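Dear support,

I submitted the protein below through the web form. The confirmation email said the job was done, but the results page showed an empty box. After a refresh the structure appeared. I'm attaching both so you can tell me whether what I see now is the final result or a partial one.
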Amino acid sequence: MMRIILLGLPGAGKGTQAQFLIRRYQIPQISTGAMLRAEIEAGSALGMEAQKYMHAGNLVPDQLVTGMVKKRVAAPDCANGFIIDGFPRTVAQAEVLRETGIDIDFVIEIEVGDVEILRRMSGRRVHPASGRTYHIEFNPPRVPDVDDVTGEPLVQRSDDNEETVKRRIASYHEVTKPLVNYYLRWAESGDLRAPHYVNLYGRGSIEHIRDKMFAALAQHN
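What the results page shows now:
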């Protein structure tokens, strides 16, 4: 069983490594945002309850989101496990997840320094029509600020500008980083329900990080 939570700063490479996990273990990636939208579109009791909070401009309560996660992980495609990216975001949410009885096998933190994250994200450029992504340093277009295929202008997404990235980094350290200590302490407690904690240094080639991740998972599985 591979029930995995991914942690790390925006731009740390969680999405890239999740794709390797999906292919290797044949497990789905679960997005709480996508789940909320699906429940609302289906008109389920959970979805209607969540919609009340969203229409009022309030956050959906942790208990409700965790209820959706519990329902989702009971689906047949999660028989071999699942990957949760973006939840829990806080220690309070992690406690609710734990109390709900959703067992997790591994918590994987991809650790990348703030300066490197800023460099990665603020350098991204996108071709809006196709979604093609470039990077001014790591994957530049042939002509600066122009899409290779269409010749149309590239743009910088609003959430990739330097000030926004700095705010997202600060928010992660304040709100989400405490999850690292939470899961680390739990893993060291001897509790049989505790997930294994895996820390990966997220610099280097994508393949190198992937191989370190698979080796760590194999060691504890």
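Response: this is the final, complete result; the empty box was a page-load delay. The mean pLDDT is 91.
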